[in-house]
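> call design_seq(struct)
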């Protein structure tokens, strides 16, 4: 029971961090050209799948509070994050290599941006393929930022070992 409470608490804190970071960078967290810095936190899922729910909850709450596209963006964000990270978790079951796991997470969520491009194309009538290219690039930038940040933290405090204790 204590371990489940600890994991629940960590996920709640991660979701809150996601929301705060999205709020801080809201001016470029939504729209056709976006780099949602908060998605850098997705890289934690490469360290351990138990952080999945914190990411999903963070996206739902951030989109609920800040998205100019309302309910549609909540559903699309939930789908992109939920499915993208779930696919990454499934693929990553086959490897322990952290770099490979991080690349898989980054690519899965970046490819999932196709659904955000479809949403923006439908709602804002922007060109689909150009929008997808911008969104893919923005997501990839966030994933690289997350990889670098967590790699540095991992070298300094052995994040891998801390995650195993949670």
């Amino acid at each position: 029971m204590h371990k489940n409470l600890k994991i629940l608490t960590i996920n709640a804190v991660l979701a809150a961090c996601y929301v705060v970071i999205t709020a801080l960078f809201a001016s470029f967290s939504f729209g056709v050209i976006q780099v949602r810095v908060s998605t850098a936190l997705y890289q934690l899922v490469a360290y351990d799948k138990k952080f999945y729910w914190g990411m999903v909850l963070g996206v739902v709450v951030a989109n609920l509070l800040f998205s100019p596209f309302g309910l549609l963006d909540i559903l699309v964000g939930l789908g992109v994050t939920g499915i993208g990270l779930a696919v990454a978790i499934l693929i990553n079951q086959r490897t322990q290599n952290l770099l490979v796991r991080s690349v898989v997470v980054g690519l899965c969520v970046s490819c999932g941006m196709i659904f955000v491009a479809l949403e923006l194309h439908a709602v804002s009538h922007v060109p689909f393929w150009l929008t997808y290219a911008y969104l893919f690039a923005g997501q990839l930038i966030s994933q690289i930022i997350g990889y670098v940040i967590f790699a540095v933290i991992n070298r300094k405090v052995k994040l891998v070992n801390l995650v195993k204790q949670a």
